[in-house]
Amino acid sequence: MVSEIFHAPANPPPLLNAEQVLHLAQTGYLPLSPPPALEICLQDLLKFDREFFIQSTFCKESQFPTAEGTELGYYHVENEKEYLTFRHQYHSEAAGKLSHAASKFWSTAASLLHRILSDVSSALDIPFSVWDPLLDGCLSMPVSKTETTPTLLRLFDYHPGAGAAEKHTDTGLLTLCIGTAPGLQVWTSSNSAIQPEGTWKDVGTQPTVLVGKTLQWLSAGRVRAGLHRVVPNAQGRQSVVFALRPSLRHPKLDLEPFGEPSVVDLVDVWKETRGSVFNVNAQTKIREEQKRQLQGNGRSGSKTRSIWSM
Question: Which of 117, 177, 204, 259 is at a distance of 20 to 30 A from 129, taking alpha carbons?
Answer without folding.
Answer: 177
